[in-house]
Amino acid sequence: MGFSSKVPWLKGVIGWPGWAECVALIPAMMLGWVWFGPLGTVVIIGAVVPVLLVATRRIRKSSGSSAQGRASAIASRDTIVETLNANSRIYDATGRGSACLIMCLDEPDRIAGEFGQGARDRAMQEIGTRLRGALRERDVLARLDATRFAVALEPMQRLDLEAAIQIAGRLKSAVEEPVSIDATTAYFSVSVGFCLSSRAPEPTGQSVLNSAETALAEARRNGPSAIRAYTRDMGQAADDREALRNEVETALERGDILAFFQPQLSTDTGEIAGFEALVRWQHPVRGLLNPAEFLPAVLACGLGRRLSEAMLHQALTALRNWDRAGFVVPSVGINFSREELSDPNLVATIKWELDRFELAPGRLNIEILESVIATSDEDIVVRNIAELSKLGCGIDLDDFGTGHASISSIRRFAVDRLKIDRSYVTRVDSDQSQQQLVGAILSMAERLGLTTLAEGIETIGEHAHLAQLGCAFVQGFAISRPLPFSATIEWMHKHRTKLTASAGLSQKRTG
């Protein structure tokens, strides 16, 4: 038992905030007693002690404010790496785990387009403020770039995958609350990628941060508003994508990136209404790759326009060869991205290619994602689409129902046909709510004078029900998977035979 606990009044003195400063004055008091006597010493103490206490309190308050400011400040990338390094050492010594989370604003260009660049910057400042308010005092927050924040969590006991997902979800919910911008309520979303320190490939802060960035990239591919945790398989997939970036230009030059063709049928007659050209990569080692596996690499290398030119050339070549083989294929559709539609030479290029192949413009359908026309204010994009429509090309609005395009946008971009997204088509033969949604889209299209095509038909029942609802055209695996050009001729022979047999059977029944 200490001395202070035996003397209760001394314990109270020690608890007083200024006791240490007064104890420090004892030597001065003793000297004052010798030099100035009792009265002089009392006067000096009365004058000095209050001044000392006030000064001490101000210093403490200033130090506390500085510490609080440091705790709430937004750190740099280097600080995050240093913090994660320290957290990894703590994990090795104590078993207390940490994690790095990276949050990225989804569709920053849309926000800047709708509200201005300043509004996007204010939204990011608000996100930073909300994150700081939702984090603990010793969690470290950093701004990585214009659209991303990183968080290094203070080490804690039992930080497993489930706990980290809950933290990520809580932070995401906190920052996705509406923001008021110039008296307008703006809604935005963020994607989150994170890595537990214990799951990083190497026990370093840089490795943890890199792994969280890999998880964020995966979240954005599955977004918007997605959360993904880093896994070793994810890291391998990122390495594979990086390897593809090094190969993609050679693949384009060598002709390994090909157009595959998926047929579209009329629901009235069963006849072929056209084909959609879909890109595939016949990789010499990995086999046939879908666009999701290599398109990011193509765009990252700045080869989007070269890919578009290759697809256009192959699609028009296919049309000419189908004509020579005696098959009636009214049109072929090619999807054009925002980047491609921003090319000032796009219309001239397409016109030159059509003339070279001696094909009418109406035999080429320009497929544009709904998200492009819903968010595009670029004059060059609007002009290109308008000029292609005047040229006579068909304008298809792809993935309709997913991009929030308004009726005014549909009119503005001279859309001819709506391609109903497969999310509305799935189980349309058995789900009443799906039937109502598709019925509403078909009714709207009819009033606007637009034709319709349903994508992603996977069953005969869906095909039949869409025909009953009045959808003019259908496309999907129930009809055919995408085919290389060499297989389209055989498929059309079989389809023609099937139609002929069906027509003969119908005549016998009516006869």
Structural features, described:
The chain is α/β, with parallel strands linked by helices. It has two domains: 77-230, 2-Layer Sandwich (Alpha-Beta Plaits); 240-510, Alpha-Beta Barrel (TIM Barrel). Helices cover 57% and strands 17% of the residues. The chain has 21 helices and 17 strands. An eight-stranded mixed beta barrel has the order 8-9-11-12-13-14-15-16, surrounded by six helices. The protein has a five-stranded mixed β-sheet with strand order 2-3-1-6-7, with helices on both faces. The protein has a two-stranded antiparallel sheet with strand order 4-5. Helix 5 (77-94) crosses helix 9 (205-221), helix 6 (108-115) crosses helix 7 (117-134) and helix 7 (117-134) crosses helix 8. The chain is elongated, with a radius of gyration of 34 Å. The termini are far apart.
Number of strands: 17
| The CATH class of the largest domain | Alpha Beta
Percent of residues in beta strands: 15-25%
End-to-end separation in angstroms reads: 114 Å
**Mean pLDDT, all residues:** 81
Give the structural class.
alpha/beta
Major sheet size, sense and barrel closure:
8 strands, mixed, barrel
List the helices and strands and how they pair.
Blueprint: H1 3-6, H2 8-15, H3 19-24, H4 26-72, H5 77-94, E1 99-105, H6 108-115, H7 117-134, E2 140-143, E3 148-152, H8 161-175, E4 179-181, E5 184-186, E6 190-196, H9 205-221, E7 227-229, H10 232-254, E8 257-266, E9 272-283, E10 287-289, H11 291-300, H12 304-324, E11 332-335, H13 338-341, H14 346-357, E12 364-369, H15 370-375, H16 379-391, E13 394-400, H17 407-412, E14 417-420, H18 422-425, H19 432-448, E15 451-454, H20 460-469, E16 473-474, E17 483-484, H21 485-510
Parallel strand pairs: 6-7, 9-11, 11-12, 12-13, 13-14, 14-15, 15-16
Antiparallel strand pairs: 1-3, 1-6, 2-3, 4-5, 8-9, 8-16, 8-17, 9-10
